[in-house]
Amino acid sequence: MELSEKPKISSFSKRLIATVIICLFLGGISGYGIMNLAASSQTSDLRKTVANLQSQAASDNSTINSLRSQVASLQKRSFRSSIGD
To answer: What pLDDT, in 10s, does the model give residues 10-19?
Structure first.
């Protein structure tokens, strides 16, 4: 064998390298798909949580407005009764 000649790669080595490359490629695609699915599930859960919190905030706001109205009514009554005394 002369110095200028390149060593030949055996058929088995070529198949092994091709198999490793394909496995890495498929593993990468599978990993991406699993991570994307997990992120999608988390996003859905967060959207449900936000919707629940918005509903609760609206309900709390309604309760606050009702209490303000009741306080104002009680203040008017108290004022009227203090004038009547």
So the answer is: 889 999 999 9
- C-alpha–C-alpha distance, residues 81 and 85, integer Å: 6
How far apart are the C-alpha atoms of 8 and 74, rounded to whole Å?
Answer: 98
Residues of the chain where predicted confidence (pLDDT) is lower than 70: 1-4, 84-85
pTM: 0.53
Q: Transcribe 42-83 into DSSP letters.
A: HHHHHHHHHHHHHHHHHHHHHHHHHHHHHHHHHHHHHHHHHH
- Hey, what amino acid is at 38? A
Q: How far apart are CA 8 and CA 21, in angstroms?
A: 20
State the Cα–Cα distance between residues 11 and 18, nearest whole angstrom. Answer: 11
